[in-house]
C-alpha cells in the first residue's frame, strides 16, 4: 500500500473532502499530485474511464488518458501551470478503456496552492465528455471528403459528356452533313462512267436530312427537355418512355398522373433526370424484356417508380462500388428534399423509387413568381 509522507497528508485529507462535493457533478473531476498521481476521483470519471475508484486511485492519470498531440506538449503545459505562468491548461484527450469504447474528453488542469505557504500543492482536472461532438465532426469530415470526391466525379462526367457531344457533332453529324452537301450538289446527275445511273434524288436526300435532324433533336433533348419546360413532367415522362421503347425494342408500360400544382422546375428536372439515368442503366446492364414506369401525385407528394424484369444485381456489392449514375440519381432527389430507394437481386430485376414533397417548393416558386 502506498504511504504518504507528512507533507502530503493534509493535501490528501483536503482532496478527499473536495471529492465528496464533486461526487455527483455531471462532469468528471479528479485531484492529482503534481506528478499526476490520482488522489481522488468522482463517479462520473469512473463512468467515463470504465473503471472503479479502486482501480484509479494512486495510479498516474497518464495510464488512462492519452493527449491528441504529443506528450511533451502536454508536459510543457502542466509545467507552465505549476510554475504559475498560466492559470490553466486545456487539451483534448482520449480515454483508455478496457472495453476499447472510443471516448474523447476536453480536459482542463488548474493548480491548487497551499492555504498557508501558497506553494503549489496539487492539480485539479476537470474532464468534459465530447465524444458526440468528435463523432459528429468525424462524420462531417467524412461527408465533406465524400462530397469533394462526388464533385470531382461529377465534373469528370460533365467533361466526358461534353467530349461525347463534341465527338458526335464532329464525327457523326458534321461528317454526315458534309457528305449530304456533296450528294446534293450531285443530285440527279449521271454517275461518272455510268450514264444510265444517276446520283440520289432529292427525296432520298431529304430522308437522310431527316435522319440527321433526328440525331440533332436527340442530342438537344438529352441536354434540355423543351417538353418538360412547356408541357410539364407527365408529358416529358411519357415521351421519354415512348422513345426508349422504340429505341430498345422492348415494352415500356407508362402511366402518369398530371401534377395538380405547377411544379418547381428543380423538382421536374430531378425526376426526369432520374428516369433518363435509370433507362440508360437498363439499356446498358439489365437485358430486360419489359419496363414499367409509374408517376403518381398523392397527398402533395410526387412519386416515380421504375421497375424492370432484367438480370438485377446485388445491392450490397453495388454499395461498395456505386457508379456515378446511381450516385447522381440519389443526389438529385436529396437536393429537392426527397427520398431515393433502389431494390434489386440477381435474376429478379430492379426497382427504383424516387419521391419528394411538392408543397414546400411549389409555394416557394409561387412566391418568386409573385415578386417578379
Topology, pairings included?
Blueprint: H1 8-22, E1 28-32, E2 38-41, H2 43-49, H3 53-56, E3 65-67, H4 71-82, E4 88-95, E5 104-113, E6 120-129, H5 131-186, E7 190-191, E8 194-198, H6 202-223, H7 226-231, H8 233-248, E9 251-256, H9 265-286, E10 290-298, E11 301-308, H10 315-320, H11 324-335, E12 339-344, E13 350-357, H12 359-371
Parallel strand pairs: 9-10
Antiparallel strand pairs: 1-2, 1-6, 3-4, 4-5, 5-6, 7-8, 10-11, 11-13, 12-13
Short description:
With 372 residues, the protein is an alpha+beta fold. The chain is 51% helix and 23% strand.
Describe this structure in words.
The structure is a single chain. By secondary structure, the protein is of the alpha+beta class. The chain has twelve helices and 13 strands. The strands form three sheets. Strands 2-1-6-5-4-3 form a six-stranded antiparallel beta sheet, sandwiched between helices. A five-stranded mixed beta sheet has the order 9-10-11-13-12. A hairpin with a 2-residue loop joins strand 7 and strand 8. Helix 5 packs antiparallel against helix 6 and helix 9 runs antiparallel to helix 11. The C terminus is likely disordered.
Amino acid at each position: 500500500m502506498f504511504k504518504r509522507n507528512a507533507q502530503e497528508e493534509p493535501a490528501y485529507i483536503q482532496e478527499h473532502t473536495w471529492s465528496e462535493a464533486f461526487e455527483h457533478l455531471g462532469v468528471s473531476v479528479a485531484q492529482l499530485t503534481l506528478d499526476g498521481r490520482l488522489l481522488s476521483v468522482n463517479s462520473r470519471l469512473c463512468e467515463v474511464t470504465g473503471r472503479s475508484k479502486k482501480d484509479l486511485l494512486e495510479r498516474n492519470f497518464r495510464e488512462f488518458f492519452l493527449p491528441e498531440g504529443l506528450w511533451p506538449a502536454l508536459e510543457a503545459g502542466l509545467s507552465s501551470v505549476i510554475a504559475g505562468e498560466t492559470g490553466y491548461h486545456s487539451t483534448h484527450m482520449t480515454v483508455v478503456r478496457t472495453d476499447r469504447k472510443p471516448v474523447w474528453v476536453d480536459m482542463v488542469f488548474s493548480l491548487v496552492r497551499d492555504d498557508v505557504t501558497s506553494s503549489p500543492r496539487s492539480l485539479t482536472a476537470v474532464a468534459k465528455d465530447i465524444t458526440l461532438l468528435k463523432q459528429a465532426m468525424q462524420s462531417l469530415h467524412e461527408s465533406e471528403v465524400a462530397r469533394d470526391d462526388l464533385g470531382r466525379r461529377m465534373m469528370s462526367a460533365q467533361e466526358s459528356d461534353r467530349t461525347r457531344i463534341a465527338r458526335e457533332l464532329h464525327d457523326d453529324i458534321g461528317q454526315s452533313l458534309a457528305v449530304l452537301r456533296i450528294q446534293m450538289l450531285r443530285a440527279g446527275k449521271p454517275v461518272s462512267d455510268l450514264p444510265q445511273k444517276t446520283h440520289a434524288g432529292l427525296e432520298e436526300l431529304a430522308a437522310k436530312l431527316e435522319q440527321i435532324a433526328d440525331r440533332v433533336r436527340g442530342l438537344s433533348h438529352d441536354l434540355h427537355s423543351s417538353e418538360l419546360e412547356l408541357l410539364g413532367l407527365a408529358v416529358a415522362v411519357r415521351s421519354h418512355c415512348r422513345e426508349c421503347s422504340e429505341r430498345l425494342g422492348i415494352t415500356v408500360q407508362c402511366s402518369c398522373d398530371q401534377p395538380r400544382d405547377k411544379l418547381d422546375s428543380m423538382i421536374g428536372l430531378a425526376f426526369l433526370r432520374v428516369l433518363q439515368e435509370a433507362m440508360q442503366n437498363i439499356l446498358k446492364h439489365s437485358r430486360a424484356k419489359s419496363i414499367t414506369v409509374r408517376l403518381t401525385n398523392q397527398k402533395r407528394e410526387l412519386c416515380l417508380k421504375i421497375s424492370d424484369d432484367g438480370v438485377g444485381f446485388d445491392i450490397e456489392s453495388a454499395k461498395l462500388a456505386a457508379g456515378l449514375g446511381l450516385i447522381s440519381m440519389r443526389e438529385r432527389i436529396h437536393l429537392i428534399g426527397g427520398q431515393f430507394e433502389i431494390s434489386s437481386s440477381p435474376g429478379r430485376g430492379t426497382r427504383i423509387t424516387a419521391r419528394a414533397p411538392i408543397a414546400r417548393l411549389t409555394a416557394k416558386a409561387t412566391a418568386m413568381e409573385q415578386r417578379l
